[in-house]
Amino acid sequence: MENLTEKSAPVLEESVGAVIRELRLKEGLTIAQVAELAGISRGMLSKIETGSTMAGMDTLARIARSLGVAMSALFSRYDATTASAQHVKGGAGMEVVRRGTKSGHTYHLLAYGQGPVKAFEPFLITMEDDSQTYPTFQHPGMEFLYMLEGQLEYRCGQQTYLLEPGDSLSFDGEAPHGPARLTQCPIKFLSIIVYPRGAE
């Protein structure tokens, strides 16, 4: 019986790195120039381009701006052959750093935008301890939270909500929001941001 091996999907880091390199060369820019515009070291940009490391979303956004493209363009080739569905295995979501977050507060992005406009972003968020002050976020669109583990007081506008496993919370992303107090750690919850049509 013939052995059939399935062709593996492109690795996310390599796909993003290849697109960044191609866009940089197309614009006639050096690694040093893009690194300076993006506010990162040349060594870091080189590692990102070769796929040996994956930058956080803030860094990717700065690189995209320095290249004059939307951040979603950096993910344009990832899993393009199976664009009808995207399968991310458990634990394989890209770890990202959101502005203001520190250690003990981990975001895993569970799906990557493939079109020209970002439609939604689903995160698995893990919080291990309450040793820091958590930031306040604001963004376009709606956000939906679903608690999986632990207890969390979550601030949205002027209100604070106690979230326990099985609870959900949905709200307008333009309202200032973020964790107020971690009442029982470790905490895990899903955060799904749905952007308005035409949002950049």
Polypeptide structure, described:
The protein is α+β, with helices and mostly antiparallel strands. Strands 1, 2, 3, 4, 5, 6 and 7 form a 7-stranded antiparallel beta sheet that branches. Strand 4 and strand 5 form a beta hairpin.
List keywords for this structure.
alpha+beta; 434 Repressor (Amino-terminal Domain); disordered N terminus; 2 domains; single chain; 7-stranded antiparallel β-sheet; 200 residues; 7 strands; Jelly Rolls; 22% helix
Please report which band the strand proportion falls in: under 5%, 5-15%, 15-25%, 25-35%, 35-45% or over 45%: 25-35%
CATH topology of the largest domain: Jelly Rolls
Q: Which structural class should the secondary elements be placed in?
A: alpha+beta
Instruction: Give me the count of strands.
Output: 7
Q: Work out the helix count.
A: 4
Order of helices and strands: HHHHEEEEEEE
Helix content: 10-25%
The separation of the N and C termini measures 51 Å
The stretches of 5 or more residues where confidence is low (pLDDT under 50) are 1-9
The largest sheet, given as strand count, sense and whether it forms a barrel, is: 7 strands, antiparallel
CATH class of the largest domain: Mainly Beta
Q: What's the pLDDT, averaged over the residues?
A: 79
* Annotated CATH homologous superfamily of the largest domain: Jelly Rolls
Radius of gyration: 19 Å
Shape: elongated
CATH architecture of the largest domain: Sandwich
* Tally of domains: 2
